[in-house]
Structures are given as C-alpha cells and as structure tokens.
Amino acid sequence: MLSWVEIDSARLESNIDAFRNATPPGTLIMAVVKANAYGHGLEITAPIAAERADWLGVNCVDEALMITRLGIDKPVAILGHTPLDQLDDVTRNGYRQVLYRLDVAKALSESAQKRGTRARVHLKIETGTNRQGIGLNALPSFISELSKLASIEVEGAYTHFANIEDTLDPSFAESQVRKFREALGILERSGIRPKQIHASATAGTLLYSDMAFTMVRVGIGTYGIWPSRETQLAARERGKRPSLSPVLAWKTRVAQVKHVEAGEYVGYGLTYRASRRMKLVVLPTGYSDG
Known about the structure:
This protein is of the alpha/beta class. Helix content is 35%, strand content 21%.
C-alpha cells in the first residue's frame, strides 16, 4: 500500500466530548455522519461517534440503513429527502424523518398504519436559508392537514442557520431564531409540543449557547475542523476554547529523494522552476501516480 487514510478514534471521541462541555447541561448531541461521515468513512466513524453522541444524523435513508446494519442502537435522523418508495424503510426501522411535504406525511402515515407503529417526524421550519422547509405562512395549514393523519408523531422541530458564521453581524441569525420561536408558538397553540427542538450546527453550538434548545447538530466539528477562522476567533473571545483535533490523516510513502539544480523545472507544463539547488521528494500519489 503506497497511500492510505487513518482515522484517530480517540480524537473523534474527544471532539464530541468538547461539544458536550460547550453546551448547557442536558443538551443532546447529534453527531452528523452524512456524506460518508464527511468523507471520513461512515462504517468506521459512526460506531465511534455513537459511543459519545446521543443521536446520529444522516442525509438519506441508504446511510440510515448502513447504520442499522452496523448494529448501532441510537436514534437516527434523516435530514434529507426520502423518496416515497423508500418510506417503508423509515417506518420499519424507526428512523426520524425530516418532514416538510404533505405527500411524504401521507405516505408515512399509511406505512406506519400498515406496520402498527408510529412514524416519528421532525418538522423542518424555513426561517431564511430557503432550502427544504415549511414557511411560517404555510405552517398553520400544514399542521391542520397533518393532524388529520393517523400514526404520525411530531417528535421534533428544527431549523438551519444561513449565516451564523458572520460573527461581526449576528442580526440575520437572530432574525431566524425569532421566526423559529414564532413557529414553535404556532405549534404549541395547535397542541404540538415537540420533545426535540434543534437549530444550531457546529458554529451555532460554539457561539450561541442560548440557541441550543434541546439538541445541537454537530457536523464538521465532530471531525475536528472549525467551520471558519472567524468562528474560532469569536469562540475564543467568548471564553470558549474547545480542543478540536482533526480526525483524518492522509499518509503516503516516499518514492524517491533527488536534487534539482537552480533553474531546473519540475512537473508538467514547467509548473515550478527552482530558484536554488533544492532537495525534491517524490510521493506516489497524484496524476496516477508519478
């Protein structure tokens, strides 16, 4: 093997613990392992993350099914769209499905009734990112139609920040929180009180403890990566200094060590020209693999 990736399980555990310490007591941690655990390998990463986190978050039902095959017994939230013909997998395995479409709600209801179970859903509230979600104006009618469906349990409600990393001007994030709280009020007046309420991802978790609600969704921070330099500086200014360490290391072997003289070129297209006599190390990776 000439080139390989290593995952440091101790660092992964330590990163999740750091977020646990950065959140108010009792706040649940959802470790987001979508997109093949951000390229870190779902099969390797999810079992380790599940030892420290309370929930796991994925993007699609196929990722959720892989977690089930791994024998992990933690709540799994599907944060992306699930096609109607795959919703039986959701109810069969007890996954929590993000919900913002009534046709998906109806299909979940039918599937859950057939299985004699309940479909637990998390309503996605649109507050300013304008991706998937239910807008405030549409929420009352959505709830009204949802209430007519059997075997649906609104376990959660959540939103996603669009600009939380702008640490110099938090006004947009604050406006999103106001809209989200308004949506929670609409739900409560309709008799819906979700057990799990979540808004903050990595940056929000580190910067705004008052936005933690009952759970936070930690994605890129799980793997030891700060969302931005600005987030890191702002967290330090606010007295939060979590020790985050990159989990992934990409390693390779040295194929050759040689010297080039001043004025000689290196690479296709005369990419680099040595300004002095230099030692050159050739690694067997890239442009397959010379």
